[in-house]
Write a structure and sequence with these properties.
single chain; alpha+beta; 434 Repressor (Amino-terminal Domain); 2 domains; 4-stranded mixed sheet; 4 strands
């Protein structure tokens, strides 16, 4: 490791990915020093992250131990590594804290880097030919965009059997992660060149997960540039509603009226939440505002606004687990070698990519 020096930007990214403060990093570095005898100050971490001092030799070793990442990862330029490109979208609630959002964005960036390393090691060439931008205009609405995608992807009328499978078949990459909060359902990124990447919160129930993936797909397809947040969120919701519940296919399902029993039945068929179905019925003029409001009140009284009846099984990614199996089983890589390709420690690689392709927050050092 002689001659290696940490990159300030990567130090910040890796710290945020762990959800740690500078003070926590300095304490962990002190603990990692021989016998825990060297005190590392928070000021040292601050200067390292701002590029005002060089982190190398034994300090690099301690820093890597504190962050729980391989030393070589600390030395990469995050921009050259391609982890900071592309507009980031996320389906979240306003109450989500900025610190949690930074942690999720760091997870997204590092996941892309990990998958690039694994893909390169497996000599797999990605093909995102199924993805293309659909710019919105006065003549092209989010509903039009959703219809175009369904047509290009060759999706049959009616419910989509597996939304994640459809995204992957088009060349997208999906990973399930614990995003640290129930206030964030999914996050996505696409620079228009590399494969689109979506992280889906493993805390979301199956029906909400499907809508979140479709919502993020809407962002990726329609929003290549930053815009008004609330407007883009509404557009992504409109895309998701038409993508999952096409008006031409679901309108007849509401013709005999809408009540809770009907919503439960439709939930089994369309695999979306009762709330989403109720909103769709309103948008398609299948019930009045007054009827909609009364059903919302009834659902709230029964506790359905937080936990709905009828559990929908969670969809799972296939592409990334298949990539890992290729490396471990077909190419014969050891766990340690595969982890090195992803620039992860073996225990993290095992946790993230072998044990069910998911993660939960790791304990602080």
């Amino acid at each position: 490791m002689a001659g290696m020096q940490a990159h300030p930007g990567m130090l910040v990214l890796l710290r945020e990915s762990r959800g740690l403060t500078q003070a926590e990093i300095s304490a962990a570095m002190s603990k990692a020093s021989p016998g825990g005898a060297t005190a590392v100050s928070q000021g040292y971490v601050s200067r390292a992250e701002s590029g005002r001092l060089a982190v190398c030799d034994d300090r690099l070793e301690w820093y890597a131990a504190a962050l729980r990442y391989p030393q070589d990862l600390l030395c990469l330029d995050p921009q050259v590594g391609g982890v900071g490109v592309g507009l980031i979208h996320h389906r979240k609630k306003a109450a989500l804290s900025a610190s949690v959002l930074r942690q999720v964005h760091a997870q997204l960036a590092l996941t892309r880097m990990q998958l690039q390393g694994l893909t390169s090691a497996a000599s797999v060439t990605g093909n995102a030919s199924g993805f293309g931008r659909v710019p919105l205009s006065v003549l092209t609405t989010p509903k039009d965009a959703a219809r175009q995608v369904r047509k290009v992807w060759g999706l049959a009328p009616g419910p989509i059997p597996d939304v994640i499978e459809a995204v992957e078949a088009a060349g997208g990459l999906v990973a399930v992660r614990d995003l640290g909060s129930g206030l964030l359902d999914a996050v996505s990124q696409w620079d228009g060149a590399d494969a689109p990447l979506l992280l889906v919160n493993d805390r979301s129930p199956g029906d909400r997960c499907r809508f979140s993936v479709a919502h993020e797909l809407g962002h990726l397809i329609m929003h290549a540039e930053p815009g008004t947040g609330s407007q883009q969120e509404k557009q992504a919701d409109a895309f998701a509603a038409e993508f999952l519940m096409p008006a031409a296919d679901i309108r007849n399902a509401f013709k005999n009226g809408v009540d809770l029993q009907r919503l439960m039945s439709l939930k089994r068929t369309w695999r979306v939440s009762m709330s989403a179905l109720l909103r769709r019925a309103l948008d398609l003029d299948a019930l009045t505002e007054w009827q909609h409001r009364n059903l919302v009140i009834e659902m709230s009284a029964l506790g359905y606004r937080t936990t709905e009846p009828i559990e929908i099984s969670r969809e799972q990614p296939r592409t990334v687990p298949a990539l890992v199996r290729t490396l471990l089983e077909e190419r014969g890589l050891t766990l340690e070698s595969a982890a090195a390709c992803a620039r992860l420690l073996p225990e993290d690689f095992q946790h993230l990519y072998v044990e069910g392709h998911r993660t939960s927050p790791l304990p602080s050092p």
